[in-house]
Design goal:
This protein has about 110 residues and is of the alpha+beta class. It has helices at about 30-35, 90-110; strands at about 5-10, 15-20, 25-30, 65-70, 75-80, 85-90. The chain is globular. The protein binds zinc ion (ZN).
C-alpha cells in the first residue's frame, strides 16, 4: 500500500507536501485538499453527491492542526473549523495526481 515517507506542512505557502514511498512528491494546496474532503458533511454518504460548494473554500484557508489517523490517513483541522474529514493515503495520492494532470493540461494549453 502506498504511504508517505515524509509529510511537511508549508504554512507560508499554504501547501501540504507529501513524499511517497515511490518517491513521487505531491504538493497539495490547502484549499484543494479541503475542497476534496469526503466526510459526511462534504459528500452525501449514500449517493456520493457533493454537499460542499468548492467556491465557498477561501484560497487563503489555513491549516490549524494535522495528526495521523492510524497508519492510513491524516486528520486535518482547517481554519474554517472543519475537522471531520479523514484523508487516506490513497485519496491524497489520487488528488495529487489529478492536480498534476490539471496543471500539465493548463501548461500544454498555454503553449499553443
Ligand atoms: Zn468534510
Amino acid at each position: 500500500m502506498i504511504s508517505p515517507q515524509n509529510i511537511r506542512v508549508h504554512r507560508d505557502q499554504g501547501v501540504l507536501e507529501l513524499t511517497w514511498s515511490d518517491q513521487q512528491v505531491s504538493r497539495l494546496p490547502f484549499q484543494f485538499v479541503r475542497q476534496n474532503c469526503r466526510c459526511a458533511v462534504c459528500v452525501d454518504e449514500m449517493t456520493g453527491r457533493p454537499l460542499l460548494d468548492p467556491d465557498t473554500i477561501p484560497a487563503d484557508l489555513g491549516l490549524l492542526d494535522i495528526s495521523l489517523a492510524g497508519n492510513y490517513a491524516l486528520r486535518v483541522r482547517w481554519s474554517d473549523n472543519h475537522d471531520s474529514g479523514l484523508f487516506t493515503w490513497v485519496h491524497l495520492k489520487d488528488i495529487g495526481e489529478r492536480l498534476e494532470t490539471a496543471l500539465r493540461q493548463r501548461r500544454d494549453n498555454s503553449d499553443d
